[in-house]
Design a protein that fits this description.
The complex is a heterodimer of chains A (about 280) and B (about 190). Chain A is an alpha+beta fold and about 280 residues long. Chain A folds into two domains: about 160 residues, Uridine Diphospho-n-acetylenolpyruvylglucosamine Reductase, domain 3 (2-Layer Sandwich); about 110 residues, Enolase-like, domain 1, CATH 3.30.390.50. Helices cover about 35% and strands about 25% of the residues of chain A. In chain B, the strands form two sheets. Chain B has a five-stranded mixed β-sheet, with helices on both faces. Classes of the chains: A alpha+beta (about 280), B alpha+beta (about 190). Chains A and B meet through helix 1, helix 2, strand 2 and helix 6 of A and strand 2 and strand 6 of B. Chain B: This is (2Fe-2S)-binding protein.
Chain lengths: ~280, ~190
């Protein structure tokens, strides 16, 4: 780890960190990226762990996606992550792809940034000299800056992601629409919530992918659902509200209108599923 | 690259590496210098190979160009088509998205390692019997994906098979016969070996 940080300090913006390689290697193979120095992280085993620390789940950046997907700790405490991972590429991709690599790559259509945004994960960032003892800690809003851009400086490395525990009675859901299973999402939604005794939603969080340069939280929709029971009227209103507020762009894969429409439908579906899984549900 | 430079890196060790010492504050940290070539020891299909390769050469190219194992095919070279799938420590991975030097010290299996001499592996036999291939270009990748899959899931449902092969593209068969081949192979592999 110290060697990696020293190398980054030495080569800075000339260097790229190579984790699972499932995004960087295609860019290199297609000659879209030609980093002068490649720093291979795959033997930095200190970054490969899943720890439960008083309910907060700490996942080392180099943890393979497949490992997290199959981890009983993740299944028990961050079920939203386990569910979203099944949408990431294919098993061959997840066998190599890492949790930290996907987040640091910050593809706006990738699944993991939505999970981090919905759960308000913390990003632990180290740099040579500052070391791992006094890291920088960033929120999803601070970490994701734009398309494929994060707040990481050229000499910094994402070492860990911390997921606060989902409430014991909480519900969750991750849903997406892509052209084929394993493709990047056209639109995806991560939802978490709780239900009170009267089956009203509490602590609702919605994070969308594929509809902007970074994962998009939607406070208007979250506060609209808060305190309400998910009856047909409320669900219809959610669809309308989300479709109105999303501001996606058109691209070769889907038009902005289509993404708005699907985003609303997915938000409705994700909330329904999350509510059905919440422990307060009868 | 001179022969002297070439001999410097020893596979599997850090001793021979070109190292510079950097002083940061009171501490000294040794950092390796970037290299363009490196010697690697690869274990492929149970056989050990020691080769010196450019560090940016993909594992797929090392297998094909340096080791002559051309059964691993390259379709898209960016991780979409699955033709280059091999096993790394038993797990199916895209060999076009790994560098050759990253495989140092790992156990690899390519399609050449499936058959026992002239005798086809049960999955290969099932592909033959169920007409699971036409042009055959994608087949090595399918075979390796399926061999890892059936080890973990010996009695898969059709749904599970479809998901397992979703990361491999075939442009001839329409997948129907490939699914039949997987079912046939799974049934045969579940029989007690005689």
């Amino acid at each position: 780890m110290e060697e990696t940080l020293a190398l980054l300090a030495e080569y800075g913006s000339d260097a790229k960190l190579l984790a699972g390689g499932q995004s960087l290697m295609p860019l290199i193979n297609m000659r879209l990226a030609r980093p002068a120095v490649l720093i291979d992280l795959n033997r930095v085993h200190a970054l490969d762990y899943i720890k439960d620390e008083n309910g907060t789940i700490r996942i080392g950046a180099l943890t393979r996606q497949r490992t997290a997907e199959r981890s009983p700790v993740v299944a028990a405490h961050v079920p939203l992550l386990a569910e979203a991972l099944r949408w990431v590429g294919h098993p061959q991709i997840r066998n190599r792809g890492t949790i930290g690599g996907s987040l640091a790559h910050a593809d706006p259509a990738a699944e993991l940034p939505a999970v981090a945004a919905a759960l308000d994960a913390s990003f632990i960032v180290a740099r040579h000299g500052r070391g791992t003892t006094t890291p920088r800690v960033l929120s999803p809003q601070q970490f994701f800056v734009s398309y494929l851009a994060t707040a990481l400086e050229p000499t910094e490395i994402l070492t860990e992601v911390r997921f606060p525990p989902l409430w014991r009675d909480g519900g969750w859901a991750f849903v997406e629409v892509s052209r084929r299973h394993g493709d990047f999402a056209l639109v995806g939604v991560a939802a978490v919530l709780r239900l009170d005794r009267e089956q009203r939603c509490r602590d609702v969080r919605l994070a969308f992918i594929g509809v902007g340069p970074t994962p998009v939280r939607m406070p208007e929709a979250e506060s609209f659902v808060g305190g309400r029971t998910l009856d047909e009227g409320v669900l219809a209103e959610i669809w309308r509200l989300v479709s109105d507020r999303l501001q996606p762009e058109s691209d070769i894969h889907a038009s902005a209108d289509y993404r708005r429409h699907v985003g609303g439908a997915l938000a409705r579906r994700a909330l329904q599923t999350a509510a059905s899984r919440a422990k307060g549900a009868s | 690259m001179t022969p002297a430079r070439r001999a410097r890196g020893k596979p599997g060790t850090r001793r021979g590496r070109n190292v510079s010492v950097r002083r940061i504050g009171a501490r000294k940290v040794a950092t390796p210098k970037p290299v363009a070539e490196q010697a690697v020891a690869l274990n492929v299909n149970g056989k050990r190979y020691v080769v010196t390769v450019p560090v940016r050469r993909t594992l797929a190219d090392v297998l094909r160009e340096d080791l002559g194992l051309t059964g691993t095919h390259l379709g898209c070279e960016h991780g979409v088509c699955g033709a280059c799938t091999i096993l790394l420590d038993g797990q199916a991975v895209r060999s076009c998205l790994l560098l050759g030097v990253q495989a140092d010290g790992h156990a690899l299996m390519t399609v050449e390692g499936l058959s026992n001499g002239e005798r086809l592996h049960p999955i290969q036999e099932a592909f033959w019997d169920a007409h699971g291939l036409q042009c055959g270009f994608c087949t090595p990748g399918f075979l390796m994906t399926i061999s890892a899959f059936l080890k973990e899931t010996p009695d898969p449902s059709e749904e599970e098979i479809r998901e397992a092969i979703a990361g491999n593209l075939c442009r001839c068969t329409g997948y129907v016969n490939i699914i039949k081949a997987v079912q046939l192979a799974a049934a045969r592999l579940r029989l007690p070996t005689v």
